[in-house]
TrEMBL record:
<keyword id="KW-1133">Transmembrane helix</keyword>
<dbReference type="GO" id="GO:0006666">
    <property type="term" value="P:3-keto-sphinganine metabolic process"/>
</dbReference>
<keyword id="KW-0812">Transmembrane</keyword>
<protein>
    <submittedName>
        <fullName>Uncharacterized protein</fullName>
    </submittedName>
</protein>
<feature type="transmembrane region" description="Helical">
    <location>
        <begin position="252"/>
        <end position="272"/>
    </location>
</feature>
<dbReference type="InterPro" id="IPR002347">
    <property type="entry name" value="SDR_fam"/>
</dbReference>
<dbReference type="InterPro" id="IPR036291">
    <property type="entry name" value="NAD(P)-bd_dom_sf"/>
</dbReference>
<dbReference type="GO" id="GO:0047560">
    <property type="term" value="F:3-dehydrosphinganine reductase activity"/>
</dbReference>
<dbReference type="Pfam" id="PF00106">
    <property type="entry name" value="adh_short"/>
</dbReference>
<dbReference type="GO" id="GO:0005789">
    <property type="term" value="C:endoplasmic reticulum membrane"/>
</dbReference>
<dbReference type="GO" id="GO:0030148">
    <property type="term" value="P:sphingolipid biosynthetic process"/>
</dbReference>
<keyword id="KW-0472">Membrane</keyword>
Length: 277
């Protein structure tokens, strides 16, 4: 089950999983884009909302609209959800002093509440079955906040904190959670907001990774049962320096790499401060 499946990472993930033989439940607000994706994956399908291996549901998760009904309907046809990936979200850029209060509320509703509204029912169902995997899409910038993304990063930090806080509870019920915290990804959403960003911010973020490569890294991390998945070695070092705020993959490796991680993070911080002047 993939939310935010009508575009960007969610759409590419749907393609990859379909060609690997998965049965898919795809959820998004854009009904037209979902229908187009269904026709792409199963062109012989005569139904507008499901094929042999794909079913689509159009809903706004930020409004807590129909998700429990969707979950019951999806499982009645394809069985219990084995993997849930929450890609649903919205990115809006802008400096704090030029932002409106509504922007912060919209970002929290679309990035945080859409996760809560979908994750809570499905986590309960997985815990009852004592089986399942969950992957929550956060952002690597949570560990290195950059000027110009304040509303979006605040919502992603909430997503990140929620994921870390519920992991022990889920693990006790044999439900395992990964956090995918990528850098910039070359999606339609990134292209839309990048035109509004100052050049200094784009320089800090670096060249965006192709959505295909990001998807490959995400699936690799899920298959390896990684607790924290990212797309850049720099962000892996930044996680090590989080002083326990991030889940440890291997404490021994993290301890050995800590001196190098501290040096790298100091350099990254100085670079960000220089570019932000």
């Amino acid at each position: 089950m993939i939310t935010g499946a009508s575009s960007g990472l969610g759409k590419e993930l749907a393609r990859e999983c379909y060609y690997k033989g998965a049965r898919l439940t795809l959820i998004a607000r854009n009904k037209l884009a979902l229908g187009s994706l269904l026709k792409e994956l199963e062109p012989s399908s005569r139904k507008s909302d499901y094929g042999n291996f794909v079913q689509i549901y159009n809903t706004d998760l930020s409004k807590n609209d129909k998700f429990e009904e969707i979950l019951k309907s999806a499982e009645s046809r394809f069985g219990g959800v084995e993997l849930f990936v929450c890609c649903a979200g919205l990115m809006e850029t802008g400096t704090f002093l030029t932002s409106r209060q509504e922007q912060f509320r919209e970002q929290m509703e679309n990035n945080y509440m859409s996760l809560v509204n979908s994750l809570l029912p499905i986590a309960k169902e997985m815990c009852q079955r004592k089986k399942g995997r969950i992957c929550i899409v956060s952002a690597a910038q949570v560990y290195m906040p950059i000027e110009g993304n304040s509303a979006w990063l605040a919502s992603k930090a909430a997503v990140h904190a929620l994921a870390n806080s519920i992991r022990p509870e889920l693990n006790r019920n044999k439900v395992y959670l990964s956090i995918f915290a990528p850098g910039a990804i070359d999606t339609e959403g990134w292209e839309k907001v990048s035109s509004k960003k100052p050049k200094s911010l784009l320089d800090i973020e670096g060249k965006p990774l192709s959505v295909e490569k990001a998807c490959t890294e995400l699936l690799r991390g899920i298959s390896a049962c990684d607790l924290y998945i990212t797309t850049s070695p720099i962000f892996r070092f930044i996680r090590i320096c989080s002083l326990g705020a991030a889940e440890r993959g291997s404490s021994i490796i993290d301890i050995l790499l800590s001196p190098f991680a501290m040096l790298i993070c100091c350099g990254v911080t100085k670079y960000i401060n220089f570019k932000s002047r």
